[in-house]
Write a structure and sequence with these properties.
The chain has 203 residues and is an alpha/beta fold. It is 30% helix and 20% strand. It is built from 6 helices and 11 strands. Strand 3 and strand 4 form a beta hairpin.
Length: 203
């Protein structure tokens, strides 16, 4: 019997494939959606809409402060396919979606993020925000006079900003569609996709 002189080893590639980057179905593009997020986003609140929009045929641009990949609150990363907020043009997108977690706390301190959100709101196109995501809308000055929902801890902020907090799974007010928590996403995204399609058909 021959005894190996050394234990065989394998080399781990220096670049690991990003197995969470979404691939759009091989169909014509339905349009383009921006997701505004960053480190410590609630993982489910990012990946569920990210995949759902892509599955529906939309090209999805993930906008972050530095344009680099990020890691979610529960540890799930997205290493590729992100772009910097700087240089993004609101008019290039059919919709904007802002997931929650801890990412909105940083985004609401970022002047470029707030400027982009304000510019997008001026297009009149659909804006979705989930859980803590409405904090970005508040800091962008977009809550006043609006009916909104969010994670319950955000309710006082909505009221202080002149908005009307509504404790329902989804709340639609004009172009804005907000939801409270991950479990509300099936309802929110079903309606949000319909809003996008309606808006595109009306242009």
């Amino acid at each position: 019997m021959t005894v190996p002189s050394a234990v065989e080893t394998t080399t781990v590639p220096a670049v690991i494939e990003d197995n969470r980057a979404a691939l759009r179905p091989d169909i014509p593009s339905a349009g383009r959606i921006a997701i505004l997020t960053g480190d410590q986003v609630e993982d489910t609140e990012f990946f569920y809409p990210y995949y759902r929009f892509t599955e529906q045929g939309y090209d999805v641009d993930v906008l972050t402060a530095d344009g680099q990949g990020f890691t979610g609150y529960r540890g799930l990363p997205l290493r590729t396919g992100t772009s910097p907020i700087e240089g993004a043009h609101a008019g290039d997108y059919d919709a904007l979606f802002i997931p929650g977690g801890l990412a909105p706390a940083a985004l609401r301190q970022d002047p470029q993020a707030l400027s982009f959100v304000r510019s997008f709101a001026q297009t009149g196109r659909p804006v979705g925000a989930l859980c803590h995501g409405p904090q970005v809308l508040i800091s962008a000055g977009l809550a006043q006079g609006r009916r909104m929902t969010a994670w319950r801890d955000v309710a006082p902020e909505i009221s202080q900003a002149g908005g009307i907090y509504v404790d329902e799974s989804t709340v639609e007010d004009g172009q804005f569609l907000t939801a409270r928590k991950p479990g509300d996403m099936p309802r929110q995204l079903h309606r949000f996709l319909a809003m996008i399609e309606q808006d595109r058909s009306n242009r």
